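This follows on from our talk about sequence and fold. Please put the record directly below this note.
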Amino acid sequence: MTTLVLVAHPHLEDSTSQQFFKASLPATGVTWEHLDAQPAFDIAAEQDQLRQADRIIFQFPLYWYAVPASLKAWEDTVLTRTFVYGDHRYPLAGKELGIVVTTGMPAKAFQRGGVEGQTLDALLAPLAAVAHRARMTWLPTLAVHQFGYLTEAQKLALVVDYQRYLTQPQPDTLANRQAWFADRLASMVQGLTPEQRATGELIATTFDDHRSSLDELTDTLAMIKETEDD
């Protein structure tokens, strides 16, 4: 799977959250582009990137309940009517569209009755509408609230969540999570020093054992359900 990450931020170098995301990118399978760094959009090249990607991610801070100007300009320039649906070919059909959004307010502010008065789903509805019109698959949003207040443990967890959001097959089921972790764990162990590798292999073996046990439990539950249905 190939993922295209389109980042909209006018002051990227000064953004601790965006620099964090950039440093957390997976080693392979992801193309990263900073929209604000483009003096002008090469429409043909941008559209070709979209055609080649399986998953497309819009990544940005929420600015006054909307996307930053660079992403809106990219939409208006690249997502022409003819390209998206006008010739009835729908080149983006079946591709996945996800949103990584950062906010300066806590999550509860965007709940019904919260101080913002709107949910994130409502604020991002125009992007969801684009996905619908293009016949794309709309992914659940990855929202990061008040990044500067996250603990180190929360940031470590965010690295995993971010990488899974970019590369893990959807839907976000337990089976897909297990497969993703199993694949990454093997790569991580291979990258360890000789002194660390024994510990890494033990962790990988333990993970596989628990995974096998869970698979057996799932099969057993499925058999029980079939018996009850009969």
User: Anything to note?
Assistant: The CA atoms of residues 51 and 172 lie 24 Å apart. The beta strands are 3-7, 30-34, 55-61, 96-103, 137-138, 142-145. The two ends are 40 Å apart (CA to CA). Residues 194-229 form the longest helix (36 residues).
